[in-house]
Specification:
CATH superfamily of the largest domain: Fe-S cluster assembly (FSCA)
Strand content: 25-35%
Order of helices and strands: EEHEEHEHEEEE
CATH architecture of the largest domain: 2-Layer Sandwich
Radius of gyration: 17 Å
Shape: elongated
Low-confidence stretches: none
Largest sheet: 4 strands, mixed
CATH topology of the largest domain: GMP Synthetase, Chain A, domain 3
Strand order of the largest sheet: 6-9-8-7
Bound molecules: zinc ion
Oligomer: single chain
Mean pLDDT: 90
Distance between the termini: 29 Å
Length: 152
């Protein structure tokens, strides 16, 4: 959406997720809607993990970014329904995760692929990795530990 010559969506791509700095909030699928009401911009976001303190950081980053771009009247609306799922992470986002060394989320009981050597021969070491949103895995082929972005 272009408002006063500014491509809002493109600008929001420069805001990254505080917990996964390689992903922008657009890659994460957090931004649901960008709307304009008169001189007001309304950005609707859906929190990823409800207990994620990162959401406050994300909301302020969006606000600051838009103020910087000349939009002083910004409303950030949080919508909880439908709930965010890891399915909302874009294909580009999944690719970026893997390049960063985090296994992207997969459904159900599918094997987790090692982001380093692409082997499916992996095992879970701990349910919690570097943050609560991730689990710690180890590759049985290249022996590298890696974070897996938990599906939910
Ligand atoms: Zn490996």
């Amino acid at each position: 959406m272009v408002v006063q010559g500014v491509d809002i969506e493109k600008e929001l791509r420069s805001i990254t997720d505080p917990e996964i700095p390689v992903l922008s909030i657009m890659d994460m699928g957090i931004v649901r809607k960008i709307e304009q009401f008169g001189d007001q911009l309304e950005i609707t976001i859906t929190p990823t993990y409800t207990a994620c303190p990162a959401m406050d950081v994300i909301a302020s980053s969006i606000r600051l970014k838009l103020i910087e771009l000349g939009f002083p009247k910004v409303t950030i609306k949080q919508v909880l329904v439908p709930a965010w799922t890891t399915d909302w992470i874009t294909a580009e986002g999944r690719k970026k995760l893997q390049e960063y060394g985090i296994a992207p989320p997969v459904k159900s009981e599918a094997p987790i692929q090692c982001p380093q050597c692409k082997s499916y021969h992996t095992e879970q070491i701990s349910l919690f990795g570097s943050t609560a949103c991730k689990a710690l895995y180890k590759c049985l082929d290249c022996h590298e530990p890696f974070d897996y972005f938990k599906c939910h």
